[in-house]
Write a structure and sequence with these properties.
Blueprint lengths: L1 H13 L7 E2 L4 E2 L2 H14 L2 E8 L2 E8 L5 E7 L11 H21 L20 H9 L4 H9 L3 H18 L1
Antiparallel strand pairs: 1-2, 3-4, 4-5
Helix pairs in contact: 4-6, 5-6
Length: about 170
């Protein structure tokens, strides 16, 4: 692994902060194409390359040393059930993959590509599958099983299924 470490260290000494003020929702970032335009010549200069593969529900980033074949791997899961305002499921997936590619590559290479905006996002609560949750409660055969199942729900799930839980308590008592 000494070849890839040496080449990566030389690359990191040469690459500059890459920041372009592409506007997001309350933050700025550097888009993937700008990152690639900046890093690809330097990676080649230091005998490095990378690939990013979508495998099932994850993006795998592989950094490789061209001459020795040494590699680093990173796997980042693609979040499921995410809703973004004004986007259909395919647009959300594409956005997620691009986001993961940008940040996993930046992390692997030690790049600085954006201003620190941790916790600036406003998450959208996932949609509750109330029929599925109610079915889980209705499938309980004992009071103990009902209590265990209900306690495993999140507070939002408990609030949405309280009536079903109460009905099952009466049925099982």
């Amino acid at each position: 692994m000494k070849n890839i470490y040496k080449s990566l260290a030389l690359f990191q000494q040469e690459v500059k902060t890459i920041h372009q003020d592409t506007k997001g929702y309350g933050y700025t970032y550097t888009n993937l194409s700008t990152i690639l335009e900046t890093i690809n010549p330097l990676l080649a200069k230091h005998g490095l390359g990378f690939t990013q593969l979508v495998n099932f529900e994850a993006v795998e980033t592989i950094l490789f040393h061209v001459d020795s074949g040494e590699t680093f791997h990173s796997i980042t899961n693609i979040p499921q059930g995410v809703t973004l305002k004004g986007m259909n499921d395919f647009q959300v997936l594409g956005s997620s993959i691009t986001y993961i590619r940008r940040y996993s590559l930046s992390s692997m290479l030690g790049l600085v590509t954006d201003k620190d905006a941790d916790a600036a996002g406003e998450p959208i609560a996932p949609k509750l599958d109330i029929p599925r949750l109610n079915n889980r409660l209705n499938a309980c055969n004992t009071m103990s099983e009902l209590q265990t199942t209900y306690k495993a729900f999140t507070p939002a799930e408990q609030a949405a299924t309280a009536a079903t839980k109460d009905a099952m308590k009466l049925k099982l008592s």
